[in-house]
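FIELD: query
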Amino acid sequence: MYSIDINETIDAPRARVFALLADHEQFGKLLGVPVRRIKDSDQADPNGVGSVRKIGIGPLGVNETVLRFEPDTVIEYTITSLSPIRHHRGRIRFYDTPDGQTRVHYTISFDDIIPFSGKLLRAGLDRALRRGIRRVPRFT
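FIELD: result
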């Protein structure tokens, strides 16, 4: 099992940070990869529970489905397409700080299918996610 654990404090209100990270297209812009919503949620927010986003291009992309969506609080998702990893779970939690900032706690866990590929994937994902989260203030 591989895991990523990111804790970042962002100088922006929690509602705005949540809105950026919850929006599939904005999430892609933060990461610098193509992301598009391919299925809307049945909830009021089209990015909520049951929505599906495609990350990447063509056959190299993966589909992620939102499993839990509590506005301004938590987003959980999993990969639901063919992928080089299994047992994937992503969770983003949002907290207010005493000084009006937002703390983001982003965790991902997964197993690799191709032996030893998980270490490389973890390093790449960790780097991309940290860079993307640090870019959030520019988008607020």
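FIELD: remark
The beta strands are 2-10, 35-39, 52-55, 62-70, 74-79, 85-96, 102-112.
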